[in-house]
Amino acid sequence: MAVRGVGRLTCVSLCAQRNSRFQRPALRPLSCPGTVAADLRREEQPSGSTETGSEDKSSKKRFSEVQKERREQAQRTVLIHCPNKISEKKFLKYLSQHGPINNHFFYESFGLYAVVEFCQKESIHSLQNGTHTPSMVTEAAIPFRSRFFNLKPKNPSNQTSERSCIQSSNQLPPSSKKLFELLCYAESIDDQLNTLLKEFQLTEENTRLRYLTCSLIEDIAAAYFPDCTVRPFGSSVNTFGKLGCDLDMFLDLDEIGKISTHKNIGNFLMEFQVKNVPSERIATQKILSVIGECLDHFGPGCVGVQKILNARCPLVRFSHQASGFQCDLTTNNRIALKSSELLYMYGALDSRVRALVFSVRCWARAHSLTTSIPGAWITNFSLTVMVIFFLQQRSPPILPTLDSLKILADAGDKCIIEGNNCTFVRDLNKIKPSENTETLELLLKEFFEYFGNFAFNKNSINIRQGREQNKPDSSPLHIQNPFETSLNISKNVSQSQLQKFVDLARESAWILQEKDKDRPSPSSNQPWGLAALLLPSVANMKSLAKKKNKRPASERIKSLLDSIKSNSTENSTSTNGKRTISTHT
Ligand code: GTP
Ligand code: MG
Q1: What residues are paired with 247 via a beta bridge?
Q2: How far, in Å, from the CA of 235 to the mean position of ligand 1?
Q3: Distance from the CA of 250 to the center of ligand 1, in angstroms?
Q4: How much is the pTM?
Q5: FRET label pair with 65: which of 181, 421, 527, 559, CA 20 to 30 Å apart?
């Protein structure tokens, strides 16, 4: 799903930055980015390890608040391709001539990059004004004043390397080996689920880079559509994203129509002259086509641009080389944005939700139930909805139904998109925490048991009402789209893929049951609990073993040649006496 380019990352803590001499505290913006970071850090705490249920009494941020703060933060941020040997101190000193720096970090992705967040937006104009377009010798540069820069030393020999003392952290998820080690040494299955969440969830730096990438793409799209907004959605923002997941972007042009600074007084109504096209879909295709061209021709760092305009949801797919993200840009896809908000809400309501979803997603990936290419397989989005549905079934329920969230909504929450009622309460503090105290271990086992025995042939999954319903059609797996209720979000899933899911779920429930009885000692280093679930399934192991037992390739080729030879002798004289096959050269 994503181009995994981002490698090692150097982070400098926000606190260290705040104390640095490059910042003047008096100029700190009102919307302090640290508050978002603090929220994220709180999120990064292993969820549900000692407590079950969501007992966090502190006020939780709304999705829109997080988006607003992150967006504002990204607008004050620049991306700089740095020389490999750079003195961090000199680099910061050089940049701080444009204004105080609030935060920065380095990462490697086919070169060294720095993400630098200024305290004020004005610093970016100052930096841009001091930057020139390179003059090429053999090629021609297309001038574009973006926030993506190239830093070159004036005198390379003067640059001493101070990178050795920079603390680096890895931005990629752990290797399978490291993960197995971590899981094997965990104290309990609950601990394993929380460890997996901690290792795979998006880091603070990765989240910043995602918002920054959207902001950079927004600058390009704004060349055509000033005042447009490019918003991240999907797993980048719904708190269920794993390191390395794709970056889904939504080009929002709706705000443009709403901008009107003057009150319309008088007898007339003034409208913009616009071009009309026969349908909304054609408008979407035309807009994305032109933005795709822009990204391809003028977008610094945008490569492999593909315009996939005939898809159900037209999109432009490209790699943002510098960040390493595989990006999908859509427009007219507001419901997906609302789905992201709903998932964010569910993820924030109870500390067990994310831990369970991450484990189920990793389990599905380990067994090739999900892949990065579209096809007849189940998607991460569907799996997440299945976990939410399962948690609505517990007694007492761990998560509320969507209908009950709608009842709690007030007038400000009202949201109708393309005739679909997408209203639900957005203030997390209005939702009563669950009284359910089940452990993650029990929930994981029960999840597999529940779906290993689910009547997929006749029932549909429905998080709006939180109960099984009769399937309205014959698709093997029916998961009702929460907002477009006549649609099935898993329409693509084939019977054989569903069967594979069911078989693996049963097998996993059985493994958890068995391991319960006979857990190996920690020192034995034997996979147990979640680690055992992430190993290839028994069925796969058998087929692997069969393959391994096969004779060496050279032997197989020799016997194949022998059999062809004997066939050729057999066939050399057919009934009509003519040679039909000959192996003679
Ligand atoms: P990853 O696999 O980590 O990328 O998860 P994701 O949740 O980002 O999924 P994906 O990139 O496939 O889709 C992005 C978002 O689009 C999802 O989070 C949903 O909000 C929405 N979406 C994806 N598939 C469907 C679908 O079949 N129906 C609807 N209504 N929305 C979908
Ligand atoms: Mg995605």
Answers
A1: 327
A2: 8
A3: 12
A4: 0.83
A5: 421
